[in-house]
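Hey,
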Amino acid sequence: MRTCMMILMIMMRSMIMIMMTMKNQLNAMNRSACDMCGVIRNASLEGCQTAAATIKDMPKSGLSEGQIKIWRCLCCTYDNPEHISVCGICRTARKASFEESQETASETTDMPKADRSDGKTKIWRCLSCTYDNPEHVSACGMCSTIRSASLEESQASASGTAAMSNPASTTTKASLDITAKVEAEIVEDNAKSSKEPAPSSLIKADKHEKRENGVLREDKSSSNGLVSEELQKLSFSTGYNFHNSNKVLKNAVPLEEYKAEPWMLHEQSEEGKNLLHLAIVGHVDAGKSTLTGRLLHLMGRVSQKEMHKYQREAKQKGKESFAYAWVLDESPEERERGVTMTVAVAHFDTVKFHVVLLDSPGHKDFVPNLIVGASQADAAVLVVDASTGAFEAGMDGQGTGGQTKEHAQLIRSFGVEQLIIAINKMDVVDYSKERFDFIKSQLGLFLRRCGFKESSLMWIPMSVIENQNLVTSTSDGRLMSWYTGPHFLESIDLFKPPTRDISRPLRLPISEVIQSRTLGQVAASGKLDAGAIKVGTKLLVMPAGEGAIVKAIEQDGNELNVAKAGDSVDIGLQGIDSSILMTGGVLCHPDFPVPVARRIELKVAVLDIKKPILFGAEVELHAHHSKEAAKIVQILAILDPKTGLVRKKAPRLLTANQSALIEVLPHRGICIEEYCNYKPLGRVTLRATGKTIAVGIVTRIIEQQ
């Protein structure tokens, strides 16, 4: 009986396998697209077989046998006859700008005389895919990238060295000379520009749009941009050519020899306000985005109509309390999850400052985004949830480390010294003075341990939902009975204006690569950490080592002629390809480039970690807007945290709350400075397994790119 059952099961299994095989065969016959590449199935599957017959029947066009023109499909690389507009295999439409990919040798002799000379065929190299195309083709045959007029390159055979008698050769020869000597011209031009400032009328940007409240709006009164002949003559190679950066760094001038130009040192106008970058940080669900949204609404940056729309949408989703948070949390994923995922930027004015608000994520999964965005901060607001249990979770998180602690340590490592502690949701605890004092004593002790001075801390009790103590003094009797200090908006004006380093060479870390109609397709945004720029300034893009010219400058949607250290701006660039720009790169002075470090020495403070840091540990190295994988290659010494003296040389590991000197090897070169030269570019953060393990500064660049 048992044997019969086994035989029956084997037979049933065989039948099932046969049926599945038949089903797969039927599905394959009925399938409309390829499983591998997704190409739509050709309705007439005899395209392959009819191609040869089609070639025979195609118009002769005066071509002899063996001279048939063909074009290569970009999808399946099948060679199709010239007169067919779609591929015979995959039915992909032929691009209008895609000329012949392959031609017979005899066809080359039929090229226009302006494109050949003595058997020498001129070609140009595509900037995107480096494919060599014939001179008469206007778009790349491989990737269809439009040929740039200023980036022509010709290649000739070794035997063909005779000069072309055609007038068209003059332009090509000049282009070759510029391409061969471009780096020398950049350095020479920039040296001249440092002595004589370029006129602001060198370039006029296209004006097709305006910004209202940080939102791009179309401007119907557009004007065509005018680019000077000097820019048209410039040509720059594309791709990250580290050979260029090596050459640039070798020719770098010592920082001590830099002298600021007179226009950089002009004082700010009396009407102008100091710019203040204010980061909003704190534990998840403490009310950071709600505070930001309500503040913008009360300051008039968000209209009542827009606010009504957010309230209606939040109510439809069953999240009425998130209405103010949705002012900046715009993505569907952020609204669905109810957490901020990226750093949102907003602007408003106080009596004393023009504030750039940086609403940072509080969830531990998005701490890297906080590091990238909030590293620009001049001051910060640490939002704390006063409700019972929530504050304790932010400070401890049941042994996992709350984000209140981590965020406080991070913003201190960014160089932030002035801090507002906004104790939110006081209405939940009936505006209890005892609860306020408890939070102040517990958190104050930790903040002083992080390096904050008591005189630089401001403690503000508030309730964002009930609009208590935000932009006006509190009207609730329970809070009025014991709190007489400033409200939140007044406390911002109590900050000391940040100092700006204008007298040093230009440093602008790129926070984002952008595109806009006013700035063009090649633009970057970031905060000037040092120096100044104006329209027409020539600068260097690192780590690529390529030169560019400032085409236009914008701040909060408004056009500027000059931007100085401390300004957050969007910059349109001319004379460079967009592929050169990258988040974490640095725009700098051509004669004083930022180093591209390959091995660095760090002085770090280890945080409250559970596992020790060992020699050879893999970490994430965060510096300004750059993030690189790195390895700790050497632990040099353990230092006394108070005196900085060496306690122990060459230890085996580092444990919690120790200070140490270590060597780190990034997997790729990173734009970074020694802390003594440029403080913002000399601060670093080390993370591993999703947690911040150490913060520190760059003491020495051991090896450069």
